[in-house]
Amino acid sequence: MEIGLKRLIDARFDAHVEESRRFDAASKPVAGPRDFEELQRVRARQDASRPPSGSRAAQQIAEVGGRRVPVRVTVPQETAVRGVYLDIHAGGFYIGSAAGGDARNAVLADTLAVAVVSVDYRLAPEHPWPAAPDDCETAALWLVKRAESLFGTSAFVVGGASAGATLAVTTLLRLRDRGLADRFAGAVLQYGAYDLSGRSPGGRLYADDYFIEAYAGHVADRTDPDISPLYGNLGDLPPALLVVGQRDILLEDNLALAARLAAAGNDVDVRVYPESAHAFTFRPTGMVAAALREIDAWVAKRLHEKTI
Fold it and tell me: Fewest CB within a 10 Å sphere: which of 52, 71, 96, 191?
């Protein structure tokens, strides 16, 4: 077992702290929608702000056991594929899309020589739990079955941000129960929400957020690990990199998951970035550039270890 815990204020990031503070001070807090009508307006604004198409991502359908889910596949332009990154997008389970990550995934594909497979899972509240984890499991099982023939590799990493990180963990728990979690070299978990029941100290901090009602409001006991992985049996999972900001409301939730993963015998690396709020890795700052370099290095190391 290996536990890596970075100090909350790491001297390597001192040069970026003031920029992060200024950026956050100039940013308006983003609250979840109050109801479905407002959600529709949020989705419309998001669609309108998306850059014009020019993506090289290819749309495919992942199908396993009678279940189908759209995925977007981005391969490196100038190098052979050395691994596959299963990407699960952010958005509180109720907004976002695989296409919204095309630009970032193209950079990831070229930087790490990976095929990025992004899951277009169904969104709440129209499709509440378990629709999203069903779709992510389908994409993961499809990769396990088809990656060698499609990409010439069976070295996998799964990654997600916010709701995507939550779904990455539930996907791994499902795969572990099928005896397949060891097929993945690692998991990159950026500021996920791991207690949607609101029973833990960390979970209580965001217990009233809209996304919980939209995604799992119909479930009487939200400590089900398929909803709140903090409460699951977390043994026999691949190495995990947890990335979270010091000012994120989900910081305590992430530290709790890290502790439970480590206690279950897994390799866990926790990176806490100073003066950084929720979803900070989507911001154009030096802190983010440094964080992304660290994530890339971690993924490259895990894929290399999987293939030697």
Answer: 52
